[in-house]
Amino acid sequence: MTAMQLTKEEERMLKGEEGYAARKSMEILAALGDIYGADQLIKVGSVQVAGVSYHNLGDAGLEFLNDLARDGKVKVLTTLNPAGMDLENWRQLGISEDFAAKQNLVIDAFRRMGIIISCTCTPYLIGNLPHYGEHIAWSESSAVTFANSVIGARTNREGGPSALAAAFVGKTPRYGLHLDEKRFPNIHVQVKTTLTKLSDWGALGYAIGKKAENKIPYITGIREAELDELKTFCASVVTYGAQPLFYMHGITPGAENCAVPRDSVTIEVRDLKEAYDNINDEVTDIELVCVGCPHCSIKEIAQIAELLEGKKVAETTEFWVATSRVAKQIADTRGYTETIERAGGKFACDTCMAVAPLKGRFKSLATTSAKGCFYSRQNGMATKMGSLQECVEAAVTGKWS
Ligand code: F3S
Prior knowledge:
The chain is α/β, with parallel strands linked by helices. It is about 40% helix and about 15% strand. The model has no long low-confidence stretch (mean pLDDT about 95). The protein binds FE3-S4 cluster (F3S).
């Protein structure tokens, strides 16, 4: 049935002796293992499941999940990617009753499986934090890149079904980025420009993603990086490039042990400018400002509150802060929520601009995120990318200046 070496327990699961969800999961893992030449399954420390928004799943996806939820129970720590709405304040974000009802059925299926309803793309900020070298099975691309590159954990970019399968079996096929030999960098990227604002990291991700193509970048020339900058970079480099893994000399673990690849490219100030030119559209009136792609950390929420203090969001514009419910709960205790909401801002917990059903609602968007621009364009919006200050300014004036 599979070329992989299976344990007795795995064979029992594959034969259906451990129930429907385990059998389905083993079928998925065996098929993947055979396609990619894996020799065996390996244990994973945690799973992160994408494919949560009803907007993307539809009724067929909901049915698939309900079938698995009949007898499926996750065997390892498993968290969820953002859903299509704020699970509590969906009305405030303009989500329809019909959509909310379906989205809640999706969430209910995940809950029955034993999955933590975290609904965030920054699981590493809310307690799903792997250690260096740990094998995991995550599916959100920005989180996968962060886990591989910033933490030094090991994961392929799983699809929703293969991540779920890994959660039910507690294992994933040993191939790709789980193997030492597939993790060597093979292009040297010399950064010869300075980065002065958060969105520059998105522009850098765009520029490196395009130049590195399908190679694993070994990046030099960056002296310091904050966590929020790295998460922004991770989201961008994998959106505009191909590999969910990079090494940043002096910053990410393992980089100092790598041989510097001979193949080399440089990133100069003109490359960042080109990135901004490609990401930014010709638009002045901004209908939606959304920050938090990947989901805002508490530090970013504090910065937003400070920038919004005493201001008012324009009547023509909505201002969304996309974040995890956990970060929002901390923001509540610090008074940040009150400041942001008093100014007319809205929290979009559990969701984001890419997976909420926004098509047709807004014509233009401003954000700090290169990835956010990529997906918002697919939702028919003209996009502007800039600093947190520029985004708050756009929210208050309704204009991009
Ligand atoms: Fe997260 Fe959505 Fe951006 S899932 S990385 S906020 S597109």
